[in-house]
Amino acid sequence: MKSLLKEKLYSFFIIIFSFFTIKRGRSIYWIDILFMIITLILIKKDKIKLNKYLGFFLIGYVALVTFNFINTRIVEMEYFLDYIIYSYITFLILSQMELKEKIYKNYLIIFSVFTLIFTVKYAISWYEVGFKPNYRSFARGYPTIASIETGIYVLICFISTIYSKKIFEKVISFICFFISIIALISVNSRNSMMTIPIIILGILILKYRKKLKIKYFIGTILVTGILFQQLDVDRYFYRVEKTLKIENLKKETRIRIWEYGIEKFKENEYKPLGYRYFEENKIKVIPNEENPHLHNTFLEILVTQGYLALLFYVSFNIFLLKEMIKKIKTTEIESQKILNYLTISILIFYNASGLVDANIYFKKVNLLVYFLYALALCNVVKDESNSYISKIGVENENFSS
């Protein structure tokens, strides 16, 4: 009875936590911290497992950020808590959870349905203006945040569509995927619209590589290209086409922001400027526009937190990727393999978007991303009923022989 209650509590808190990713309004830290304390109590201490290198670089990076924040105190405590609690602490705690396979295997389809809470709003807002090509839908915040968030929803629904075994789940996932694609185009982010198709193509090649025939593959790409031209679909990608032109790249605002950041770093004798330095010292490289960060995660960490922090951050991401690959090779739980396929694609997308945005400061994005990372690497217990049925089958077979 006690074991059953604890199992239900596990599933309850994981589902509740997913709702935290869509929480609106101001931060209520005491609720979040209370949730984490309860989760810690539920964790079985003897089951705690964390790759020593992954743990070292993660804890080391958090320690460096903490020291940097205390040493400079450029911004309020809220900015620091948003960064630490909703990403790294979330990952550290939830990655040690133990979940039952019969609960775990349903998460992907549940998350796919949850994406409709956001994507439908974007799709409707675009529909209301007649699907104008120059419209940008980001009702819930800045376009950069909306684009990363929507890109993750596309990947969730896509993975659920191609890996779901049941027809009903495939259909539901595909509907969610279709709506998320509409939402992604409505946000009209250059980075997401360039990286998401490449990642999806990579997933398809890896999944169907044994069945893939080059002539059909090339034919599909050609037909898709022709349809884009004939149906005038490419007008919705005008920002991407504009970006890819060399003459436009030279005028890109982000490049001027990066140059400004590097110059400030040089002026400070290559010492870190301080955690969230540009939040209080806005970047003004073009008239009537202020930027609170360098629009590049890696450059932002280097300039504001220092060389060592950047080394720890990059190393953490490398070992995180290695752990996901290792989990795919070692776990017997098919649903966990699939979730790791998803998180690898998200890890690639998240870091790719970090080349043009300081996404480490996007709280809701980080909460969603690190929640999924933790869920992919947590301990999943194989369904005993399936094992028992298999065992009975083997025994009966042996008995009859």
What is the end-to-end distance?
39 Å
Class from secondary-structure proportions: mainly alpha
Number of strands: 2
Count of separate DSSP helical elements:
20
Average predicted local confidence, pLDDT: 81
Query: Strand count, sense and closure of the main sheet?
Result: 2 strands, parallel
Shape: globular
Low-pLDDT stretches: 21-26, 387-401
Helix and strand pattern: HHHHEHHHHHHHHHHHHHHHEH
Beta fraction: under 5%
Strand order, largest beta sheet: 1-2
Helical proportion?
over 70%
Radius of gyration: 23 Å
Query: How many domains make up the coordinates?
Result: 2
Please describe what this structure looks like:
By secondary structure, the chain is mostly helical. The chain has helices at about 1-20, 30-40, 50-70, 75-95, 100-105, 105-115, 115-130, 145-165, 165-185, 190-210, 215-230, 240-245, 245-250, 255-265, 275-280, 295-305, 305-330, 335-355, 365-375, 385-400, and strands at about 100, 380. The chain has two domains: about 1-105 and about 250-390, no CATH class; about 110-235, no CATH class. The chain is built from 20 helices and two strands. Helix 2 packs parallel to helix 4, helix 3 (about 50-70) runs antiparallel to helix 17 (about 305-330) and helix 17 (about 305-330) runs antiparallel to helix 18. The longest helix has 24 residues, at about 305-330. The chain is globular and about 60 Å long.
